[in-house]
Specification:
The complex is a heterodimer of chains A (105) and B (311). Chain A has 105 residues and is mostly helical. Chain A has one domain (3-96): Orthogonal Bundle (Helix Hairpins). In chain A, 75% of the residues lie in helices and 0% in strands. Chain A has 3 helices and no strands. Chain A has helices spanning 3-24, 28-52, 62-93. By secondary structure, chain B is an all-alpha fold. Chain B has 2 domains: 1-84; 118-311, no CATH class. Chain B is built from 12 helices and 2 strands. In chain B, helix 2 (24-44) runs antiparallel to helix 3, helix 10 runs parallel beside helix 12 (278-302) and helix 11 (243-267) runs antiparallel to helix 12. Chain B is globular and about 65 Å long. The chains are: A mainly alpha (105), B mainly alpha (311). Chains A and B meet through helix 1, helix 2 and helix 3 of A and helix 1, helix 2, helix 3, helix 4 and helix 5 of B.
Chain lengths: 105, 311
Amino acid sequence: MRAATLYGLCGAVLVGLGLFGLIVHPQPLRKILAFNLIGGGVFLLFGVVARRGASAGLGGDPVPQALVITGLVVAFAATALAVALLLRLFQETGRATLRSDDSQP
Amino acid sequence: MAFDIGLATLVLGVAAWTIAARDTFAAVIGFVAFGLLLALVWVRLAAPDVALAEAALGSGLTGGLLLRASSRLAPTKGPAVIEKPSAIMRLAASVLCTLMSAALAAIVLLLPEPAPTLAPQAAANLAATGLGNPVTAVLMAYRAIDTLLEVVVLLLALAGMWSLAPDHLWGGLPGRRDPVDRDDVLTFDAQLLVPIGILVGIHIFWVGSVAPGGEFQGATILAAMWILAMMTGLVDAPAVSWRWLRLALVVGPAVFLAIGLAGFALAGAFLAYPESHAKLVILTIEVPVTLSIAATLALLVVGPAERAPQL
């Protein structure tokens, strides 16, 4: 098995792990964190596709690599916005939960 | 290969820890370690440009952002325990996620052979861009429109974040000013590190045209240095309404767009560069874009206005 394939499998497991965290964690901050794990896994799959496309003296296909750099920046911007929304929710209500008020026990 | 197996196992172990850890703070620390390990994976995948971006942005700035959020949300630790999903829900989620991973793993194992690639085209046209780094060539020339839109997305995210400030704080100063001890080790560190870090950031940006690096990686390091200086009280955060700040934020996208439109006249298409001066045009875009990205990234970490504007 090639190293690229190994990291591809690693990326596949990461997506599953992140998705699990996104579903089961009640705290929104942990959901944001889990979402970033999914992102890491997806980017890794891109990296594997890039590595497999190595030719013309390049170690990998630069197009998916550049896409991942773009993706990292956008993921950061989305995370920052999500964190800001969460902190504002906490500031307004004193709670950091996704439950609506009428479902409170 | 043994190293790769060990690294992949470590990445998955740390990732599992960030999901399983009870304490959010511990989970965020795990996430930072995860990002750094992932940067190593990128090196193994022959993608040093991505490794730099992952270490600086995915691990560093995202980690800082989440750490700050976790410390502010520390008072909410207790009630979350009550909201834990039921055992059936957890079981269903784990089945779903295993299926998801299995499907992706199958796709990885069944990828077409030989792999489709654009590497030969990217290498063949490299000379026309005047650049030596094919990844930078993709970002700045072949797919420049992606980069233009990405810079705009950053600006939109910042506008969205700023608009979360309460009305009476609009135009004020972002973040809290924590009391700082001038004789603190952190302050001393910052005084030493910030000038060096700024040089490193500019270097990484500059070598990006021929070697691993580039505007995003360099801008992230510059942003980190500004954040460090703000954290230690060496400089205060600028007011959101400050005219020069607004100018620094939009100059990159504005120059990028202007040169893109000039492409119609000079080379016959949007974002087309005249071939004889491609490198000069690309640099003219990159310098203001790096400044704008650095400022935007730093302000995204600092957050919306939390102190009233000084009149």
